[in-house]
Automatic annotation (TrEMBL):
GO terms for molecular function: glycosyltransferase activity. It comes from the Bacteria. InterPro entries: Glyco_trans_1, Glyco_trans_4-like_N, Glycosyltransferase_grp1. Keywords: Transferase. Residues 169-304 form the Glycosyl transferase family domain. CDD domains: GT4_AviGT4-like (cd03802). SUPFAM superfamilies: UDP-Glycosyltransferase/glycogen phosphorylase. It comes from Solitalea longa. This is Glycosyl transferase. The keyword Ubl conjugation does not apply.
């Protein structure tokens, strides 16, 4: 199959440090190449891939000092993708809705994975006008605000099985990995750790937009003797950081579309303690790969009961549900459906919801 993957240009594919969407695009691209498909990756010039790379900037636009209008680069990329459309059996976009005007007025086969939150009030007016564009969600919960668009299915993220290794030994600290932002609630993670008397290590990126939030609300919390702030880490550092943790704290306060750090933790055998928001009930098997909690008190109980979670079982569930091979297989099914019946991609409108987990009971 001739496949084009169109990545965002804000980071390299894969990103050098933090960056979920570009990392998933990279994993998917490499797996498709490994399976013998002819893949072209539209991405930044510093991306690393075994596919054919077509670049539109020397590096990720977030770190390019001379980039003042990142949309200009993206629109140039979309123009070139459209011009080359007859070279591909399917074009897979990961750039949100930016390409809709191009794709809606052309006849090429395409699908878009939406990687972000969809509960923003401005989105319905846009998606109502592009209701035939074929879309993929990364969790069933993510799609709830937009029930009437053309969902082709839900495809959970997957990572290479050999990227992380099982550490069957219980860790020595609680871990927080992600961004310092109001919705990620690192303050909750710190509160939980202090109340149970456990050391917490925080590996987190601080975006410019969140610098004031960090200074005002978080910086003073890092002075506690149980708190160690590491900062942003790369993929190599992430492995030992997660593998040596007793549990990953995921105390989110927003409708998380997926939360890749949860499956990365599971890949190391590390249980997850996550607040019941967004995709969490779809990713975590309560009582098996961690605990789903509703508040701080529930989280404290979960930390105290974390030894009841089998790290071997966490790894087993990861291998069963969240490998890159499983993700690629599901995408290939969607590609084939669109190629064999292109009209499906224009007026599908079926639910496409993935149901592969039993109902859960929250802790507390």
């Amino acid at each position: 199959m001739r496949i084009a993957q169109v990545a965002p240009l804000y980071e390299a594919t894969p990103p050098k440090k933090y960056g979920g969407t570009e990392r998933i695009v990279s994993y998917l691209t490499e797996e498709l190449v490994n399976q013998g498909h002819n893949v072209t990756l539209f991405a930044t010039g510093d991306s690393e891939t075994s596919a054919e790379l077509v670049s539109f900037s020397k590096q990720g636009l977030r770190s390019e000092k001379n980039c003042f209008d990142p949309l200009a680069r993206h629109y140039a990329m979309m123009h070139d993708v459209a011009k080359r459309a007859n070279e591909f059996d399917i074009i897979h976009f990961h750039i949100d809705y930016l390409h809709f005007p191009f794709s809606a007025s052309n006849s090429y086969n395409h699908v878009t994975t939406l990687h972000g939150r969809l509960d923003l009030p401005d989105l319905p007016i846009l998606y109502d006008r592009y209701s035939d564009v074929p879309l993929v969600s990364i969790s069933n919960n993510q799609r709830k605000p937009l029930p009437n668009v053309n969902w082709m299915g839900t495809v959970y993220h997957g990572i290479p099985a050999n990227l992380h290794q099982l550490n069957s030994q219980e860790g020595t600290y609680l871990a927080f990995l992600g961004r310092i932002s109001p919705e990620k609630r690192v303050d909750r993670a710190i509160e939980i750790a202090i109340k149970v008397g456990a050391k917490i290590k925080i590996a987190a990126k601080i975006d410019k937009v969140d610098e004031e939030y960090f200074k005002t609300h978080i910086a003073r919390l890092l002075d506690h003797p149980l708190v160690e702030f590491i900062g942003e880490i790369d993929e190599i550092e992430k492995k030992s950081f997660l593998a040596n943790a007793t549990a990953l704290l995921f105390p989110i306060d927003w409708p998380e579309p997926f939360g890749m750090v949860m499956i990365e933790a599971m890949a190391n055998g590390t249980p997850v303690i996550a607040f019941n928001r967004g995709s969490v009930p779809e990713i975590i098997d309560n009582g098996l790969t961690g605990y789903i909690v509703n508040d701080i008190q529930d989280a404290i109980k979960a930390v105290n009961n974390i030894s009841m979670i089998s790290r071997t079982e966490c790894r087993r569930v990861f291998e069963q549900r969240f490998t890159v091979e499983r993700m690629a297989k599901r995408y290939l099914e969607i590609y084939s459906k669109l190629i064999e019946n292109p009209i499906t991609g224009r007026n599908n409108h079926h639910n496409g919801v993935t149901h592969n987990k039993p109902s859960i009971k929250m802790i507390g």
